[in-house]
Amino acid sequence: MITVLRAGPLTTVQDLGRPGWAHLGVPRSGALDAPALRLANRFVGNPDDAAGLETTMLGCTLRFERPTLVAVTGAVADIDVDFRPVERLRGCQLFAVPAGGVVDVKRATRGVRSYLAVAGGIAVEPVLGSRSTDTLSGLGPPRLADGDTLPIGVPTAAPTLVGEPARPYGELVLGIRLGPRDDWFDTAGLFGSPYRISPLSNRVGSRLAGTAVTRTRAGELPSEGVVLGAVQVPADGQPIIFLADHPTTGGYPVVGVIDDVAPLAQAQPGTTVRFRELD
Amino acid sequence: MKIRRVGTAGLLIECADAQRVEDWRAELWRRRSAGELRVVEIVPGARTVLLDGVAPGTAEALPGWEPAPGGIQSEGPLVEIHTVFDGEDLASVADLWGVTVDTAVRRLVETPLTVAFSGFAPGFAYLRGLADEWAVPRLAAPRPRVPAGSVALAGGYAGIYPTASPGGWRLVGRTDQNLFDVRREHPALLTPGTRVRLVAM
């Protein structure tokens, strides 16, 4: 069992989400930086879809009742175990916590979200096949609060040593496939001057600030299904890129879809973003 | 019919009207059950059906799967929603329609409704069937909290809030029925294609 001593601003349980329910209005949810969660799970011998914790900017502090193997990936952040720093190797801090040990994941120095996996996984009750907290709909466990306790599952396999996928933390270049509604816009603006990640970004979407993408046709789009990575352009022309907790349908036209949202999970507010058109 | 690409693994089928959306949705669900279509999500919208997570070759197969004109005529299940018509906006809806409150309620209970698509929140169904000229605008300012079970109208649709949430639809009534429960085998009471009757209590 884990006791939450300091929950941080937004720490949630996340696995790979609950795809397959969008026709009922259920968002996919799941880890924003899914490759980082998979990596952490592999380090501790969990299946890829085991649930871990996703922190936001300021980390969290946890006490472990029993000796536990823990891996932390994603954002670069110092970690202390019982006040002793842990080294980061291959994009991961992998360490054994003694019974009663306290793990302090500190402020992210690069990136935004750390992924903490424990051998056996976080064993909260699944909802519609997933343990993920969905911040849009409220499905899944509530965000962590100080004093909460979390059950840990039974480890199933031996830990493996794996390598980190290369991840740049500076300016982002996002590959975008135009459509389905690129014919509603003058898309040249999208590829002109760069955008910046707005501080209003969250698990629902990355909000961009910069040159407004201008509409070439008036009217309202009847609501239609949207996908992860969709670049929706509301009336003010400032693009929103949908992340894991995105709504399943939307009434603003989608100018294009980016091919990989994981870098956005780690993009701090103010990060420069450019688009590169894919064919 | 037009098919638009959505990223690397999505396809959007554009339909002429809501009935064609329903025809396509039913046809695609049938083909998925039969093992002919591999896809993660089939998401109907107002005038479209989105396929997300498709296998290669799906775009090429779709034109050959176009449902016969006139629809499949396979009727969805019928769900009765027991409704108390005492919504805060019922009088304003009657005004917009230019009828008495009693006539407005009669219209709502006599109109056969069908779930066109879901969205906004888990289990929130957009119900079509109301006449086009009965479309009502959303409230100028959304309410910060609409209670669960509120029966409401906006645009040409009726809808029922499964959970309490902010909302800009015009409230005409309320129901005690549980629209969405994750513990049920079928969590949503109203799914695309379901036929709905509002029954006055």
Describe this structure in words.
Chain B: This is Allophanate hydrolase subunit 1. The complex is a heterodimer of chains A (279) and B (201). In chain A, β5 (68-81) and β6 form a beta hairpin. Chain A is mostly beta strands and 279 residues long. Chain A contains two helices and 18 strands. Chain A folds into two domains: 2-150, no CATH class; 172-277, Cyclophilin-like (Cyclophilin, Beta Barrel), CATH 2.40.100. In chain A, the strands form three sheets. In chain A, strands 1, 2, 3, 4, 5, 6, 7, 8 and 9 form a nine-stranded antiparallel sheet that branches. In chain A, strands 10-17-14-15-12-11-18 form a seven-stranded mixed beta barrel. With 201 residues, chain B is α+β, with helices and mostly antiparallel strands. Chain B folds into two domains: 2-65, Gyrase A, domain 2 (2-Layer Sandwich), CATH 3.30.1360; 78-200, Cyclophilin (Beta Barrel), CATH 2.40.100.10. Chain B is 19% helix and 31% strand. Chain B contains four helices and 13 strands. In chain B, the strands form four sheets. In chain B, strands 1-2-4-3 form a four-stranded antiparallel sheet, with helices on one face. Chain B has a four-stranded mixed sheet with strand order 5-13-6-7. In chain B, strands 10-9-12 form a three-stranded antiparallel sheet. In chain B, β3 (41-44) and β4 (48-52) form a beta hairpin. The N and C termini of chain B lie far apart (42 Å).
The helicity of chain B comes to 10-25%
Tally of contiguous helical segments of chain B: 4
Global shape of chain B? elongated
Strand and helix order of chain B: EEHEEHEHHEEEEEEEE
**Given the helix and strand composition of chain B, which structural class is it?**
alpha+beta
Low-confidence parts of chain B? none
Oligomer state equals heterodimer
CATH topology of the largest domain in chain B: Cyclophilin
Number of strands of chain A: 18
